[in-house]
């Protein structure tokens, strides 16, 4: 039985490794093969094929529910119902729409929308909206998060921006939204948003600084409703019934164990309903249901059985859950605890068990954090040692009880005030820990080094006294495997996918240079959220030069975050910045790094910020790259007049392919083999302009576009081709782009 169950789970988990989904014909053949194997009692292959067919069919259904390519960029009037808790941002409101329908087109069932300066929205309201729709997409950078996979796992078939709207039917019972407003209105020492996250599972109101503190200390799970919270609530009811039975206070006519399991499950479902019954909550409730059933009837079968059953149940309900990092973290944490605390000889005192639980989880989750590209919190064991009981035993019961007693006025508010004070004290303590031990984002590891880390973690989790256990610590040294070096005389170029902006990393054998730092607008700083993490994952420990072409926010916005997050030996700018000291760009300055030649140029007479861009030319073994910033037609002409040898091999498209740049004379004189375009998908500026695209095509220039291909990689000096992240095929990545 266990072999068949394991094969079924393996089939369900294989989904994420498919570069493309098979056709309907192949799916039918797989289903027939599964039926034949099961009929002939070949359980392992039959169960594997059955799980694989179920996962592939579910994924294909999700892909079929995506917005049709012909509707992308169009503005349609549609109707639908607001679901979940709409989120207020600095720019407006973000929400999800269920059951969208339009007279002019067939739409996906679930949409994720944003409304600039939109009115307050409530879950359950029916709206008629004018929406400009887009297919699900996201920035795609090396070793970075894949938003397309996350949107698919949430069954989001399209995203869009609302242009206008009309409320058709107000909600009669939007109790969660009203409760959120009630919680936000109480006095909780400024931690009202944390209470909302803890009670309702809505963490959107938390400040970015709070999220950074939680991430740095590995305590995000405490404020996002997870299996821990569901299990705690269930455990309180189960423990209460068990205690009453032990003390002889439970009615003798009622068997205590079924009642304990039933009440525990009821409490978990009630808390999950209060939290909105999202996918993580559903997963936690399913896992708890399996554990309680095992405790009730199948305890004699061992502790690993409920974990395997829970895994299968979660994946049967939603096979796409395996695309989410939270899925792997949840099951890895539980599996680590089961592995380390079951079938061990001897006993541990409660305080020993508690302290060891934090360390074994930190070790057990290390391979998962590395595989998913998430930061590793060095302070997590110590922080969780205090924070978990603080929240679980004190804050959460007070918060839930205070919420239930809010109709009584002062009683509920007093309990919430006390819970808020405890949360405020916890955040202050965690902030101190985060300052001393910030989160570590290790460089991406080659597959063999990651396997060594996995093996080392497993060895360290073996019982004390097992031979070779100490070898696990040595294997963890693979975390610091030296990065691959760039050959002498060559330069590795990464044009990152930062939307409507620019950030280009250049790496020689011993030096790193960043040309522009990505955009920052309002509370969205892609220098901090995208560029800095990508640099760290690529193994950049310091920047020898930060070069900011000019002062526009789409090029210079992330510079402060870069300088704050990495040591920068020298910073140069085409224009001065208010919040960052930059040396002026000296036209004609030249230098060599590891056999690669660099030179700067800036038009001193430029009349606009774009034309004053600091331009960088790079030459490696006769192959040339020009990073042109946002210079326009006049600056292009001035550059040609000042350059003896204008011919280049690769060109960063000036001003993102604007009509005011990439003139006929400039393209003819430079004669590049290829042009690298950095721009936002469906941007409001119309970049790259159709006339510019036609010019490049007419001259036979290969065009590479971050909005289509994701981040672009070029090794200058090797006379090779441009590579893109999107070339790494995954079935969920939009082939229609």
TrEMBL record:
Superkingdom of origin organism: Bacteria
Keyword Transmembrane helix: yes
Membrane-spanning ranges: 32-56, 230-250, 301-321, 327-347, 359-380, 386-408, 415-435, 447-466
Record's bilayer topology term: Multi-pass membrane protein
Membrane found in the keyword field: yes
Pfam families: Competence, DUF4131, Lactamase_B
Domain Metallo-beta-lactamase span(s) in chain numbering: 500-681
Gene3D superfamilies, per database record: Ribonuclease Z/Hydroxyacylglutathione hydrolase-like
Protein name in the entry: DNA internalization-related competence protein ComEC/Rec2
